[in-house]
Amino acid sequence: MRRARTKVIRMHHASAQPELFASGPRTLIDDAEGGMRYWPQFIDEDLAARWFDILREGVQWQAQQRPMYDRVVDVPRLVAAYRLDDSALPGPLADAAGRLREHLAAPFNAVGLNYYRDGNDSVAPHNDKLHSLVPAQPIALLSLGAPRRMAIRAKLPPARSVHIDLEPGSLLVMSHASQLHYLHGIAKTREPVGPRISLAFRVRPLARH
């Protein structure tokens, strides 16, 4: 029996990150729209730490619930969302959006925030809802706070998975096309981990009037 191919990527900031960043992004998944690419130090750790503190204290975080089978359960993280033309947009989000628009040449107009308070917070394997995204435009995930491990796996055989530690200040870019073929998620962990905030920048369709 042929063994399923599994690719594990582990990065340690002190040694691997500067080298990887100097050589450009790390390609995790390849496709015609750019696949999934990882920059380990898109912004420096000091700036990432300042943005984390500002957003943790300044954002109106929401606790949500969702139906699951025959009951309603708490979403295991706090969330928030902004349109990028919102007059109340926090400064770090405006700054990050400007950097990403320039770096990726993508017209991002919305950002979703997830606040993982500890190892009990998570997000189940999923793909982004493509009906709410502009085709061919990327999704950019900027990580602040403590590292958390993301699992990326193929929806169909042959089985393929990637595990990557999302470091503070790192950028993970996923193509629109990758959402058709791969799921991504962050599992709960019993290991002691600090809080993390993820910023997911997207290109949403313009509202119809």
Record the SSE blueprint.
Elements: E1 5-9, H1 16-22, E2 26-29, E3 36-39, H2 45-58, E4 62-68, E5 71-83, H3 91-104, E6 110-116, E7 123-126, E8 139-145, E9 148-154, E10 160-166, E11 171-174, H4 178-181, E12 182-186, E13 196-202
Parallel strand pairs: 1-10
Antiparallel strand pairs: 2-3, 3-11, 4-5, 5-6, 6-13, 7-12, 8-11, 8-13, 9-10, 9-12
Can you characterise this structure?
The chain is α+β, with helices and mostly antiparallel strands. It has a single domain, classed as Alpha-ketoglutarate-dependent dioxygenase AlkB-like (Jelly Rolls, Sandwich), CATH 2.60.120.590. Helices cover 19% and strands 39% of the residues. The chain has helices at residues 16-22, 45-58, 91-104, 178-181, and strands at residues 5-9, 26-29, 36-39, 62-68, 71-83, 110-116, 123-126, 139-145, 148-154, 160-166, 171-174, 182-186, 196-202. The strands form 2 sheets. Strands 2-3-11-8-13-6-5-4 form an 8-stranded antiparallel β-sheet. The protein has a 5-stranded mixed β-sheet with strand order 1-10-9-12-7. A hairpin with a 2-residue loop joins strand 4 (62-68) and strand 5 (71-83). The protein is globular. The N and C termini lie far apart (56 Å). Mean pLDDT is 88; it is low at 1-23.
Oligomerization: single chain
Text of the CATH class: Mainly Beta
The CATH superfamily label reads Alpha-ketoglutarate-dependent dioxygenase AlkB-like
> Helix fraction?
10-25%
The radius of gyration computed from the alpha-carbon positions, rounded to a whole number of angstroms, is 17 Å
CATH topology term: Jelly Rolls
- Please, how many domains? 1
**How many strands, what sense, and barrel or not for the largest sheet?**
8 strands, antiparallel
The computed structural class is alpha+beta
Strand content: 35-45%
| Continuous helix count | 4
Principal-axis shape:
globular
Biggest sheet: strand arrangement: 2-3-11-8-13-6-5-4
Overall CATH architecture = Sandwich
Euclidean distance between termini CA atoms: 56 Å
